[in-house]
Design a protein that fits this description.
The complex is a heterodimer of chains A (111) and B (124). With 111 residues, chain A is mainly β. Chain A is 0% helix and 53% strand. In chain A, strand 7 and strand 8 form a beta hairpin. Chain B is globular. Classes of the chains: A mainly beta (111), B mainly beta (124).
């Protein structure tokens, strides 16, 4: 069973909001995660660390259009006022002793 | 400004070896754990190895255990990945990534900066 599960794709309209979901498996539901953004042919970019209580810390230069929240085993990334440059792959990531784990990623299309 | 610059990627034959480097700048390199993460063509991110700030602790993914060795030279602000017995499944872009803490263990094991990657192709 994968520790982190993400839907493969999502879409939303320019100017709208979208909520991406990362689900933690049983036994890991209290874990914090990190969200990363990756544009095609580019290295990933850290967006935020998201705790189980919904508190989050954004990376350097990340606008407050990007926010995080949590509910049980679910970790969410909400992007508001969608812009064309938000079209990218989004990965959630967590950690255990001796390993770092990624979700399969969600490809976000901005319509 | 934090910068991570990978190098050393190349075309290598199956069974061959390669050493990747990651030159770091803009932060106190010796204070942070560092990881290698790879991405095979058209797929997602896969963590490979982590090393603590001092170099005293290392961990590797099962897929590379016994074949890859992570190391660092804090005097040169450089991270390395020695890759041996390479197979087609190791073909990927390899990224170095800075962790937010020093330990590489189970405390805040996430990445706040990434490099742009270097391509390793294993093919005859």
């Amino acid at each position: 069973q994968d520790v982190l599960t993400q839907s493969p794709s999502a879409s939303a309209s320019l100017g709208a909001s979208v909520k991406l979901t990362c689900t933690l498996s049983s036994g890991h539901t209290s874990y914090a995660i990190a969200w990363h953004q990756q544009h095609p042919e580019k290295g990933p970019r850290f967006l935020m660390k998201l705790n189980s209580d919904g508190s989050h810390i954004r990376g350097d230069g990340i606008p407050d259009r990007f926010s995080g929240s949590s509910s049980g085993a679910e970790r969410y990334l909400t992007i508001s006022s969608l812009q064309s440059e938000d079209e990218a792959d989004y990965y959630c990531q967590t950690w255990v002793t001796g390993s770092r784990l990624f979700g399969g990623g969600t490809k976000l299309t901005v319509l | 400004e934090v910068q991570l610059l990978e190098s050393g990627g190349d075309l290598v034959q199956p069974g061959g070896s390669l050493r990747l480097s990651c030159a770091a700048s803009g932060f106190t390199f010796s204070s942070y754990a560092m990881s290698w993460v790879r991405q095979a063509p058209g797929t997602g991110l896969e963590w490979v190895s982590v090393i603590s700030s001092s170099g005293g602790s290392t961990y590797n993914a099962d897929s590379v255990k016994g074949r890859f060795t992570i190391s660092r030279d804090n005097s040169k602000n450089t991270l390395y990945l020695q890759m041996n017995s390479l197979g087609a499944e190791d073909t990927a872009v390899y990224y170095c990534a800075k962790e937010v803490g020093p330990y590489g263990g189970n405390t805040n094991g996430y990445f706040d900066y990434w490099g742009q990657g270097t391509l390793v192709t294993v093919s005859s």
